[in-house]
Specification:
Elements lengths: L1 H23 L21 H17 L5 E5 L4 E10 L5 E4 L2 E10 L4 E9 L6 E10 L2 E2 L1 E6 L2 E6 H4 L17
Antiparallel strand pairs: 1-2, 2-4, 3-4, 4-5, 5-6, 6-7, 8-9
Length: about 180
Amino acid sequence: MHRLKLGVILAVAFGLVLGFGLRAQEHPKQEHPKKEEHPTAKAASTADIDKAIRAHIDQTAKANHGRFPVKDDVLKKTWALALEKVHTDKLTALDANTYFACVDFKADDGTAVDADFYLKGEKGSLKVTDTTVHKINGEPRFNYEKKGDYWERVSTSKAQEHPKSEPPKKAEHPKE
């Protein structure tokens, strides 16, 4: 009797497994996108980031009498700036589609303004999402500190715990 029950249980179990197995084949795996078929972010190169920033600056400056406007929340003014240099050594990927760049400008009165640009997008479609005044005449308002996989802005008092005669040990810009 025990053997009969065991045989029936095994037959039912085998039937269920076989039935579910055949039913699962109605949707074979190849009907669903393979991992490589899913769209993935196309990483932007340093040249792509540089080109996107320069295009953004040129386009914005053309609409503003040849000067790039940067809002300064600390001084409560908007700077009218001329591009001096895009720091290609400081163009950094912050994550899969967010990028950072440091850019030097000069105001008409000779003031040096370092602005940090943040961009989002993929290669060929990068857009500037934020521009922040980082330094005025070489004096930083904040620095960057790596927190896990990301860079965070930190106050200069927290980031520079060393005397001014000693170079700070933390990076002023995100670097990878």
